[in-house]
Design brief:
heterodimer; A: about 240 residues; Jelly Rolls; ten-stranded antiparallel beta sheet; five-stranded antiparallel beta sheet; 15 strands; about 35% strand; disordered N terminus; B: about 475 residues; Trefoil (Acidic Fibroblast Growth Factor, subunit A); Tachylectin-2, Chain A; four-stranded antiparallel beta sheet; 35 strands; about 45% strand
Chain lengths: ~240, ~475
């Protein structure tokens, strides 16, 4: 069964009901485990430029604390129209141009200020759910924004490869290059953009990931013409 | 009315009013079915909630299987002379501290009517902490045929799929065993072993959304039971990899919860549920398909489609036919140096009415011959309602196209074609796709040896009934539409 994001509440209820089954008492169980913390998944972005990992995954990102989307009760609503509309919404000034510094705040409305955090992910995939829980924030029913800056040593033709949980949209230098639609799980090389000409120099890569219930994460890398990972980049996270 | 017209009318009417052949029949409503287990002449599968389904023949199912403990998504495996059942449900002392627990329990039989029926007290074998990147549900067993070690995978979309080792003698967790992460972003896993590879099957996509559920079954493989499991692109299932085994189709969506059942060498089945069967109010139903292997990867066979086919022997490529005169068509060889501007004429197929008058009216022998798409070589395969079935399909009648002349077994274990189908057991056929994609065709009626016999070549051009042997092309057939 099958606790999917969409229907985990029903499954939880089933599990809870099953707990009512009368079973004899057992000896004290050792149910200790390592409670996940932010440091299991992220480290503060180092001062020195980063490079993609050996599989080409970009791990240095500026992440905005999740924008609450309490109206997302199910990911079944993530059709193309909904996503294009949601990803076009502007929540704060400079949303599509900002290259934030660590700790920089943005104001969504009179009551809501969110903070950017510059991290190096310890895994190939950026665990947005754990980013939120690690900061003590509500991790689900949320829109996540991510920004990074890459330095390209020479002109190159690449494709942007993304896997995300759930839907996401990606821009390079303000131009949309990829949309991942539907109730999606993160799969490496799930969606790959058309060919992109990157000139030598600095480029801003921006993403938005939206999710209802459940885990949320993404993985991003560039592929060359042969669909091999591009590793000869530097990632600064800053302009 | 000519005789052929009567035959044709009968054929068309039978096709018009024939019910759609379902995946299974009876009460097949279940969600998250376990692997199908065979116990004392019956098939069993358990699902989420209490209980499960029973079938006497693997085709017609009814409710009545009993499994205590409730919870979700059980699995079952026979070890020695006992059955080990695993499920995810509450366990004393874990409430509020865990995100799912996996328990196991034993019974000597799955038959609730048996005096030997009764489950042992559940044992806790795996669990996930309340805030771990794992959700300990959907257990699945593998008894490693190479080592005798027992493994259990579990997990769902929330974090990792994990594997732990159990003691096959007790069903308990092996002391000191640490869970290993083997996949992400799937659920309802299952494990198989074949030819030096361990296979991890997972269910991807969205569950529990009825006709819109995108559930689908994917697979990775590894040389080690604890991974890494990679797909056909070399992508680790810990990176979301997985090669498709089965997705929606045949008017049903959301296949999930794979179960592996081996009938005999070369005859494998996969059980699963559909999230929504469009022929059954969009309800969740049990389904069974033949499991094929292609280049080392499991592939769900398509359901056998009723229709008119050449039945070709894998041995030589000759085709099943009535032993009647080969009626030559008008024409013969045309000159090579023909005027290229001569108008092209389409030659029609030989028609049944052109030849049937010359056929004997009684039983006709069966043989194999060069396929010439002639009426005595075209067989119509039709499911027979209420004739029972076997795991995954009903019994079929095999008749000469446009007639009721039916392939039948004789009392002495040979083949014939009787003038008309009567529904007798010797005229009913079990058609199963083999792991290599060919088919076996078995009698319903057991012959003298007590076993169901298959169509078996004795020579390139001759055929009889014999015991099935997967290693021999004598026993393999192809249904070709050409």
């Amino acid at each position: 069964m099958s606790i999917t994001k969409t229907f985990k509440r029903a499954a939880l209820a089933a599990l809870a009901l099953s707990c009512l089954a009368a079973l004899p008492a057992r000896a004290q169980l050792d149910l200790s485990y390592h409670q996940p913390v932010l440091e299991d998944y992220f480290a503060p972005a180092a001062a020195t430029p980063a490079v993609p990992d050996e599989q080409g995954f970009i791990r240095r990102w500026s992440l905005l604390e999740p924008i609450a989307k309490p109206e997302i009760r199910t990911n079944a609503i993530f059709d193309d129209s909904y996503l294009n509309e949601e990803f076009a919404k502007i929540y704060f000034d400079g949303q599509m141009s900002i290259v934030p510094k660590d700790g920089q705040k943005v104001k969504l409305d009179k009551k809501t200020k969110l903070t950017w955090h510059c991290y190096d992910s310890k895994r190939y995939n950026v665990k947005l759910y754990r980013f939120a829980t690690g900061l003590g924030l509500h991790p689900t029913e949320a829109l996540y924004l991510a920004v990074t800056v890459i330095d390209v040593p020479q002109d190159m033709t690449v494709r942007l490869s993304v896997g995300s949980n759930s839907a996401s949209k990606w821009w390079i230098d303000g131009e949309e290059v990829l949309l991942l639609t539907g109730d999606r799980r993160m799969v490496v090389d799930d969606c790959v953009s058309r060919k992109i000409q990157l000139s030598a120099g600095r480029h801003v890569l921006r993403g938005a990931v939206i999710n209802g219930p459940g885990m949320s994460d993404f993985c991003v890398r560039f592929l060359d013409a042969s669909l091999r990972p591009v590793t000869k980049l530097t990632i600064t996270n800053q302009k | 009315m000519k005789r052929i017209d009567i035959y044709l009318l009968a054929f068309l009417l039978s096709a018009l009013f024939a019910p759609r052949v379902a995946a299974q029949t009876g009460n097949i409503y279940i969600h998250d079915p376990s692997t199908i287990a065979y116990c004392d002449g019956k098939y069993y599968t358990f699902g989420t909630g209490s209980g499960g389904l029973i079938s006497d023949d693997g085709w017609t199912w009814r409710s009545g299987a009993v499994r205590p403990g409730g919870g979700v998504a059980p699995d079952v495996i026979k070890i020695g002379d006992r059955y080990l059942v695993s499920y995810s449900a509450g366990y004393p002392g874990t409430e509020g501290k865990t995100r799912g627990v996996v328990t196991t329990m034993w019974s000597k039989t799955l038959d609730p009517e048996s005096p030997d029926f009764g489950f042992s007290e559940p044992e806790l074998v795996a669990w996930a902490g309340a805030d771990e990147d794992c959700w300990a549900i959907d257990p699945a067993f593998l008894l490693d045929p190479t080592t005798g070690r027992l493994w259990c995978s579990y997990g769902t979309y929330f974090g990792a799929i994990r594997i732990v080792e159990l003691d096959p003698a007790t069903g308990k967790r092996v002391e000191g065993n640490k869970a290993v992460d083997i996949a992400i972003d799937c659920e309802a896993t299952a494990l198989m072993y074949r030819d030096g590879w361990y296979y991890l099957l997972g269910t991807h996509g969205t569950c529990c959304d009825g006709v819109n559920s995108t559930y689908n079954i994917v697979c990775g493989r590894s040389r080690s039971v604890t991974g890494p499991y990679v797909d056909n692109m070399g992508r680790d299932m810990l990176q979301g990899g997985g090669k498709m085994v089965l997705s929606a189709g045949n008017r049903a969506t959301g296949p999930g919860h794979f179960g592996h059942y081996v009938e005999t060498e070369g005859v494998e089945k996969m059980s699963f549920h559909y999230e929504a069967d469009f022929e059954r109010s969009g309800r969740s139903t049990l389904a069974v398909r033949s499991l094929l292997w292609k280049n080392g990867w499991p592939v769900a066979a398509d359901p056998f489609k009723e229709g008119t086919y050449e039945i070709e022997s894998e041995r030589r490529g000759y085709s099943l036919e009535l032993a009647v005169n080969f009626v030559r068509m008008q024409g013969g060889m045309r000159a090579f140096r023909i005027d290229p501007n001569e108008p092209v004429v389409v030659i029609e197929d030989q028609k049944l009415e052109d030849v049937i008058g010359g056929w004997p009216t009684g039983d006709i022998d069966i043989r194999l011959g060069d396929y010439m798409f002639r009426p005595h070589q075209k067989w119509t395969v039709t499911a027979v309602p209420d004739a029972g079935g076997y795991l995954g399909a009903p019994y079929y009648k095999i008749t000469i196209a446009g007639t009721e002349r039916a392939l039948a077994a004789t009392e002495d274990g040979e083949l014939t074609a009787v003038p008309a189908f009567t529904g007798a057991d010797e005229q009913l056929w079990r058609i199963e796709q083999l792991t290599d994609g060919t088919f076996r065709i078995l009698t319903k009626v057991a012959c003298g040896c007590g076993k169901q016999m298959c169509l078996k070549c004795t020579g390139d051009s001759t055929v009889t009934l014999g015991e099935f042997d997967f290693s021999s092309d004598n026993c393999k057939w192809n249904f070709r539409d050409r």
